[in-house]
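Q: How would the C-alpha cells look for this protein?
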Amino acid sequence: MAKTLGVFVSSDKHLDKIIALCKAAKKKGVEVTIFFSHLGTLLTQDPRFAELEGLAKMSLCNVGFESHGLKPPVPGIGEKDYGTQARHAEMIETCERYVAF
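A: Here is the predicted structure in C-alpha cell form.
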C-alpha cells in the first residue's frame, strides 16, 4: 500500500510551505492529494501554483472558486478536478495522513 497524505487548503497563505511539503513527500515516495477550498482557491492565481503540477493530485471546490470570481484554466487542474466538499470528504477517507492550511 502506498503512503498517502491529504492536504486541505482553505487559506490564501503558505503556498511556499505547501510546495515544499509536496516536494519532500515526492522524494519519500508519498502520494499527495490536495483539496483547495474557500480562500485557498485564490492560490490558483499565484504564478508559483504551477509548481504543484506533477507533485500532487489536486482538486478544488468549485463553489469557492466561482465565489471569488475566478475562471479556468488553472495549471494542474483539469475539468474533472473542480468538485464539491464531497471530494474533500473522499480525500479524508482515503488518505493515511491529513494536514490543513
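Strands lie at 3-9, 30-36, 57-61, 82-83, 97-100.

The domain at 3-100 is CATH 3.40.1260.10 (Hypothetical Protein Ychn; Chain: A,).

Upvote if useful.
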